[in-house]
Every structure is written in structure tokens, then in C-alpha cells.
Amino acid sequence: MKTLTIQVEDTLYDALLEILENLPKHKIKIQETGSDNRLDFEQAMDYTLDKNKELYKRLS
Fold first, then answer.
1. pTM over 0.70
2. Is 9 left (phi over 0), alpha (psi -120 to 50) or beta?
3. What is the pLDDT of residues 17-53, one digit of tens each?
4. Would you say residue 2 has pLDDT above 90?
5. Would you call 43 exposed, middle or buried from its count of C-beta atoms within 10 A (0-12, 13-18, 19+)?
6. Which of 11, 7, 15, 16 lies closest to 36, judged by CA?
7. With CB atoms 3.0 to 4.6 Å apart as the test, which of 8, 19, 38, 57 could cross-link to 34 if both were Cys?
8. pLDDT at residue number 23
9. What's the rounded Cα separation, in Å, for the pair 35 and 52?
10. Cβ of 23: how many Cβ atoms within 10 Å?
11. Cα 47 vs. chain centroid, distance in angstroms?
12. Cβ distance 50 to 39 under 8 Å?
């Protein structure tokens, strides 16, 4: 299987999703992600570790 990542405007999203949902379910996997404003796990982890490092420096 191959992976395809696309970005679409909100106005086209529902129409595209409807087309994709009409394809054979055993041949595709739809994985929706949120907007770019959300941090992914690694970004959140890096941010937390940096903040912890700063905190421990101030506490020592």
C-alpha cells in the first residue's frame, strides 16, 4: 500500500471525503488529521522536555 497526504480547503473536504468513502473499504484506509495548529506528539514531547530542563536548571 502507498500513502498519500493531501491538504484541501474546508469547502472541498466533505465532497472529497464522500468520494473516498465510496471506494472499496478493504483497499483504502482514511486517516484524518487535525489542522496545522495542533502539535504532533514529537513536537509536544520536545516542548515539554525543554521546559522541564529550564525548570530543573532554575531549581538547582
1. no
2. beta
3. 999 999 998 988 888 776 655 557 777 888 899 999 9
4. no
5. exposed
6. 7
7. 38
8. 93
9. 27
10. 10
11. 17
12. no
Spell out the alpha helix ranges (H) of the chain. 10-21, 41-59
More reliable by pLDDT, 31 or 13: 13
Contacts of 17 (CB under 8 A, 6+ apart): 30
First to last CA, the chain: 51
Amino acid identity, position 47: Y
- Residues 6 or more apart whose CB falls under 8 angstroms from that of 47 comprise 39
